[in-house]
Design brief:
- The protein is α+β, with helices and mostly antiparallel strands.
- Helices cover 35% and strands 23% of the residues.
- The protein is built from 15 helices and 24 strands.
- Strand 20 and strand 21 form a beta hairpin.
- Helix 2 packs across helix 3 and helix 5 runs parallel beside helix 13.
Length: 510
């Protein structure tokens, strides 16, 4: 893997005679998207699952890899970070079908990887990230690299939240083997408003999309959330839980809990803000699963809807708040990973809720292994306890239902597919050839003459129009109107849950 120009990398594969096909270690839609951008320089095909060519003699296949800030599932392949490019070797790694494989990063300047800086080239392995610079970097600059386009205030906030998160968790999870990563932060752009994206690992990649010059407090909280979440991953063991049925929820839900708890303790979230985040995550989990148990939701749907985050946060919070026996919530998580480190395979629900004494888990077993629909499972847990109470939907939850309702209509119109970007006031819907009505890009600002988000009237009006006319009128930016077919009225939830934050804080941080 080499960088010699600003906007692209070159990846080369030296293959022995007779090796005409070698499998990529990373496959799936995200990997396929990354490799679809590769440009062959001397033959060969980089498919979603394998590298192939037709020559029978030894050959070095080379591909130009454009730099892009497009989001993908998992680690990015060639992400711009100011003057550097972030690359993760897992997107290029191949199997040993043709013999042992060796890996190397190279550039015309510095190469930062494995928590160290190298001059022009660095040996590596199949699961390592790197920052590739065109120019050398001095030791005085340090290993962290924050895009010069970031404001001094943003850079200081990133460093402060990262260091305080690490210090807090290091004190409360003493068995964790923490090694501070290289922090790489950058500005990027994508459709929509301010947003965040990140990757944990030896390099903590922090991407701030569409970031305003003077972010308001809500946008600043997004940054805190990103930094604290990714740093929390450094206190987990991703590979050690891969064999668990709920590995993604254990890993991402756990990092969400840790950053949520750290943020609450450090004052980056007020109790009211933390409660709203918890309530909205639970509402999203209940809406997305609807009439299905957790086991009935396909893994690709969990990933596509980020349910390991939205279901994982309340699962951790309520399970740890209802834990039995002695010990802190952080100690329970620390002990779980410590058992994994020792070669054991502890039951996740028992480790979190029971600790080192036998007990019957009350929350996680019901949620993750039960047969009841998730909303019913949550109702059984919360209605019988005293940690949350029923309440009518908040505006944020009404907006979430509106987005879900519109998504359903678009999928019905587009043969089960959709591509949409919600903002604070509207929904950007990408036109697709498979669609009957939404064949071109549209910017939806109103539903049945009412603002799509931020009011309580649009969703009932949409449900009524669907029942009477079998069509919903979408008000478009610029004044146009589009009638979108609707076969079945959306069933809006009449209630969700509000956490009793005083009790939860006392249970978790008291």
């Amino acid at each position: 893997m080499q960088r010699t120009e600003p906007d692209a990398l070159v990846v080369g594969f030296s293959l022995p005679a007779g090796c005409t096909r070698v499998a990529f270690l990373k496959d799936g839609p995200g990997a396929g998207t990354i490799r679809s951008r590769w440009q062959p320089l001397n033959g060969g095909i980089a498919g979603s699952d394998a590298l192939t060519h037709t020559a029978s003699t030894p050959v070095e296949l080379r591909f130009r890899v454009p730099v892009t800030s497009d989001k993908v599932t998992g680690y990015p392949g060639s992400f711009p970070v100011g003057e550097a490019v972030y690359a993760h070797m897992s997107n290029y790694a191949v199997g040993a079908q043709c013999g042992p494989v060796r890996y190397r990063f190279a550039s015309t300047g510095a190469v930062e990887t494995a928590r160290a800086s190298f001059d022009r080239r660095a040996p590596t392995d199949d699961d390592a990230p790197a920052l590739l610079f065109l120019k050398p970097r001095s030791a005085a600059q340090g290993l962290d690299y924050l895009d010069p386009a970031l404001s001094p205030e943003a850079a200081a906030q990133i460093r402060r939240v990262a260091d305080e998160t690490a210090a807090f968790l290091h004190q409360r999870m003493p068995h964790a083997i923490f090694k501070r990563p290289i922090i790489a932060a950058t500005l990027a752009s994508e459709p929509g408003g301010p947003n965040i994206g990140g990757s944990a690992g030896e390099i903590l990649l922090l991407s701030l999309f569409n970031w305003p010059a003077a972010p308001d407090p809500e946008v600043q909280r997004k940054m805190n959330k990103l930094v604290a979440h990714e740093m929390s991953h450094r206190f987990q063991m991703r590979d050690a839980v891969e064999g668990y049925r709920d590995a993604r929820l254990i890993h991402e839900g756990g990092a969400e809990f840790l950053r949520w708890a750290v943020s609450l303790e450090r004052g980056w979230l007020t109790p009211e803000q933390a409660g709203a985040e918890l309530d909205d995550a639970l509402a999203t989990c209940m809406l997305a699963t609807r009439e299905r148990s957790w086991r009935a939701v396909p893994a690709n749907e969990v990933a596509a809807n980020w349910l390991e985050y939205s279901c994982g946060l309340p699962a951790y919070v309520y399970a740890l708040a209802a834990r039995q026996g002695e010990g802190s919530p952080f100690g329970r998580i620390d002990a779980f990973y410590n058992q994994l480190r020792a070669g054991a395979a502890p039951d996740f629900a028992s480790a979190i809720e029971c600790g080192d004494k036998p007990c019957q888990p009350r929350v996680l077993t019901s949620l993750l292994s039960g047969t009841a629909p998730m909303p019913d499972a949550w109702a059984n847990i919360l209605d019988s306890g005293r940690l949350a109470m029923r309440r009518p939907p908040t505006q944020a939850q009404i907006d979430a239902m509106m987005l879900q309702a519109i998504t359903t209509l678009v999928k019905d119109d587009c043969n089960g597919d959709s591509s949409m970007t919600p903002t604070a006031r509207n929904i950007l819907i990408d036109g697709m050839k498979a669609c009957k009505t939404t064949r071109v890009d549209i910017d939806v600002e109103q539903i049945e003459g009412k603002p799509v988000f931020g009011n309580g009237d649009a969703l009932p009006a949409m449900v009524a129009a669907c029942g009477v006319r079998k069509k919903v009128m979408l008000g478009l930016k610029g004044g146009g109107v589009l009638a979108l077919p609707c076969s079945t009225p959306y069933r809006a939830s009449t209630h969700f849950y509000a956490a009793d934050m005083k009790k939860i804080i006392r249970k978790l941080l008291g």
